Amino acid sequence: MKNPADVGFIYAFLRSETGNTLLQTNRYGSVIQHIEPDHLADIPVPNPADKIKTKISDLVIRSYDLRDRSNELIDKATAMLVDALCLPPISKLKTERFCDEYETNNYNVKLSDLGGRLDGSYHLPITKAITAHLQRYAGELTTVGDERISKNIILPGRFKRVYVEKGQGRAFFGGKQLYELDPTNKKYLSLTQHGDRIKEQLELHENMILITRSGTIGKVTIVPKHWEHWVASEHIIRVIPASNEIAGYLSIFLASEYGYPLIRRFTYGSVVDEIDERHVAKIPFPLLKAKAVQDEIACIALEANAFRYEAYRLEQEALQIMNDEVIFS
């Protein structure tokens, strides 16, 4: 591209409702939808004055800079967690506690440790290795259900959804969009039909922790400010933290590669994998010996979450300019 501003501008156009509609018209496939590079070449793109292009592009670039800073902070907080708990590489823990008596990986489970579960995945050595390590190096090993950690853990009931047009209901998204800053393909849930359920079970609040509980289990994120009062599907468990401070620390641990196996161990189901709120409550959770370090990890996580909101705000500003000064001018 000859003009550097074209990159951010074209992104904003394709991200807009108009641009995305043009993009979708070229898709094909009866089951899995596709588009090809040639399809992109045929999409008409408006060409406003360079001043407008630059204004839009600058906002997009600043938005992505903030996303990078957010990711860097999350990496920093995770590294601090690993250091504070002296956690070894996860690959090392995965090989621990397997018996070498036979050529294939195998392990033994005491009858007293079955806990009513006969599925082998529940007793994988990785979960015992992580738990044993946390017991040794944490100041205290408690659970997510501890009242010091969470006020409530909500698993919404299943229901038949009634959707309405944009602007007439609450923004609604599912587990597939959990890692997206601005979830794509949002729908809008009827307040008339689902008002009570939305208020009691479904709506999101800043710094709430979300965990996917069926199909793909164990995706974790912390709710950013711009998702306040949005609605997530019943396939996502909500953990309401005891405080904002513990929310940041909780999100870092559960989203780490050490928290993931502890979530996944509770999986059940012969066709569709599931976990429920009782399982989340039982997930082991370490409190650090050095509370100052734990608080710092939490603060860094909350700062990263604030950057996500600011990145969203800047992108929305770019899209507003795109609509007002380019597409519908």
UniProtKB/TrEMBL annotation:
Residues 200-298 form the Type I restriction modification DNA specificity domain. This is Type I restriction modification DNA specificity domain-containing protein. Keywords: DNA-binding, Restriction system. It comes from Desulfitobacterium chlororespirans DSM 11544. InterPro entries: Restrct_endonuc_typeI_TRD, Restrct_endonuc_typeI_TRD_sf, Type-I_RS_S_subunit. One of its GO terms (biological process) is DNA restriction-modification system. Pfam families: Methylase_S (PF01420). Belongs to the type-I restriction system S methylase family. GO terms for molecular function: DNA binding.
